[in-house]
Design brief:
CATH class of the largest domain in chain A: Mainly Alpha
Largest interface: A-B, 111 and 111 residues
Largest sheet of chain A: 3 strands, antiparallel
Oligomer: homodimer
Strand content of chain A: 5-15%
Number of helices of chain A: 16
CATH architecture of the largest domain in chain A: Orthogonal Bundle
Number of strands of chain A: 5
Radius of gyration of chain A: 21 Å
Helix content of chain A: 55-70%
Number of domains of chain A: 2
Structural class of chain A: mainly alpha
């Protein structure tokens, strides 16, 4: 029997051209471009195009892609009714997962080919902000906001969430958050999308798997958990470092720290930290940023742990006025760009992903009839 | 960089006590019991109990488990409306995936613990036959059939599908089909459920991933594809062996053959072959069995390939009068027993499943502004 590789840590499962995490240097590239170049420069649509096609779009290509997304942004009325009716009390990630799964009913079963993935992917990517914004507003007892065709993806999402066109700064912050979360190697949600695609199942199935996987507290759920921690800290009136010490003493995990790959501060967190400071200042609640920064310093000193992408995305979204239950859906609305790129790459020269287990149970038990038990 | 393990073939990802595939001997055990003992003796409920608890139930334990399932069999009216309304034209596996995902809205977010998995699992396992039967009947323009509380799981499913209580023989055949498909090591759908659970996401998410993964043609979709092949053969009027030869010459894959693990005839296929012969005879259509058997012999001689579980499940379900589009959902209705057992096992001492990729793309591209492209 081969050696046990629990959690597949360090196991190389495929070749990929989509993104690379340089764990030692704290660097992340998408298709060869450093996120430090992309974050201040690229729109989310440009980033998705890059991830899907391996090169930055020309002006004409970008315009065509933006138009496709805009045309697909509205939901079929039955899906809108589902999201704002039976799913209204559901966890926002459960609502998003269910609605994306249901979208498959409106598209002929897409072919398990790279082209089929991008076609279905455009539909899914376009509609995810509409689903999440409608769900958030329904939870608040508000009607959905019609998509504004003059806005790009980040702007349209912010507008559908709040009913107001975002300020230039809020627009920039949302754009950068979406660009920074768009891909990250073979993380668990991306890997689950690839496992699903590897049976030659369809792209709706693969993205549905990924949304459910991202929901977990060890993955996308962590940004919501960071905000819960910050709120608990705020309510306690404690010093941030004392609060963090108390959590560690109680055996609790502090969300927003540590990563299977990085040995430095997550390069995405560097950008988000700046946004957190700026936006929390602007809303007159600088303590969300300050407490986070104090916990960052403490965790490095005490545990040698660096912040990951989730630590400062929480206070950034707080600065944008977004309800904490929707932080993980924002991650999904961005990461779907990467999921689709990976599903397309998986279909291209597909090999079924099927590992083994080491069986450690009984092997020769004898059946006993129910009457003898 | 570690060695590339494409498709994770032979990679051991975890220890497990749930089931073991003996590839060389062609043997399959669930929690220590050989399926050759379980198939003729166990009900599906006994099998699920065994997979979930590691031992066969006493009479009292089985009765309590059966009662829990019976009580949970009916769907919330909104889910029934979803399945028979907006999802009616969807692929049966897309409908099942969406409905199971939507069920999460009716259960408080279950804890990512073994106990939480079994609790949510009972709800999901109980309702999957109701979902699939209602979808099939809605596609035929028929109303759903209320669950009959006097019938066990296999019987209730057959009754809800057809509106008639199954004969003793049809009941036995459905029971054995469900028992035989209930678990099979770290197959792709089970693995996807474990990847999803490994982020500490919930059980509804994990099963939703698994359904989407099972849908693919390289996994659960194969049994439907076997029937499509048999129907095409029938329509062609060709000799079965000539037809199979033609498919191979055209570079087509013949579904129902080969397996990543078995080097013999799949032990489940041994049982299903007997059912196929008996049931096809009884409906006066013995050719479904005979053609399958002829192709089995040809494939062993020509390609050295043995039949897997899908080859004879197709004609078995045909003998039971079931529409071929619903063969894969039957697989899911059975395999959910295994998925839940694996999700519970994953939560117990969980480790995030996150592999690596070998990056083979560009690393140092320079950003160009859109106006320069």
């Amino acid at each position: 029997m081969a050696q046990l590789k629990e959690g597949l840590a360090g196991v190389v499962v495929a070749q990929s051209k989509i993104s690379k995490v340089f764990g030692e240097e704290g660097r992340l590239i998408y298709q060869g471009y450093d996120i430090d170049d992309l974050a201040p420069n690229a729109t989310f649509e440009e980033t998705a195009y890059l991830l899907w096609n391996g090169e930055l779009p020309t002006q004409k290509e970008l315009q065509a892609f933006q138009q496709q997304i805009q045309e697909k942004r509205s939901l079929p009325s039955e899906i809108m009714n589902l999201v704002t009716g039976p799913l209204v009390e559901a966890h926002p990630m459960a609502a998003l997962r269910t609605a994306v799964s249901a979208l498959a009913a409106y598209s002929p079963d897409p072919a398990p080919t790279p082209q089929g993935a991008l076609q279905a992917g455009t539909d899914i990517l376009a509609k995810m902000p509409t689903i999440t914004a409608a769900h958030q507003r329904a939870q608040q007892g508000k009607d959905p906001v019609e998509p504004d065709e003059d806005l790009d993806h980040a702007g349209a999402f912010a507008h559908m969430l709040t009913g107001e066109r975002p300020t230039e700064e809020a627009h920039d912050a949302m754009t950068q958050a979406l660009v920074l979360h768009a891909d990250h190697g073979f993380n668990a949600s991306t890997f689950s999308a690839r496992v699903t695609a590897s049976t030659l199942s369809d792209t709706y199935s693969a993205v549905t798997s990924a949304i459910g996987t991202l929901k977990g507290g060890l993955h996308g759920g962590a940004n919501t958990n960071v905000m819960k921690m910050l709120e608990a800290l705020d309510a306690s009136g404690e010093d941030p470092v004392d609060h963090a010490k108390g959590l560690l003493e109680d055996g609790e995990k502090i969300p927003g720290f540590g990563h299977r790959v990085y040995r430095t501060m997550d390069p995405r967190a560097v950008h988000l930290k700046q946004w957190s400071q700026k936006l929390c200042d602007q809303i007159g609640e600088p303590h969300w940023y300050e407490h986070t920064a104090a916990i960052q310093d403490f965790m490095l000193e005490e545990k040698g742990l660096h912040p990951n992408v989730d630590l400062y995305s929480a206070s950034t979204y707080r600065g944008l006025g977004i309800d904490k239950a929707y932080y993980t859906p924002i991650f999904a609305i961005s990461r779907v760009a990467g999921w689709i790129a990976h599903v397309a790459e998986q279909y291209d020269g597909n090999k079924l992903i099927r590992p083994r287990a080491e069986y450690v149970g009984e092997t020769d038990l004898t059946w006993e009839d129910l009457s003898d038990r």
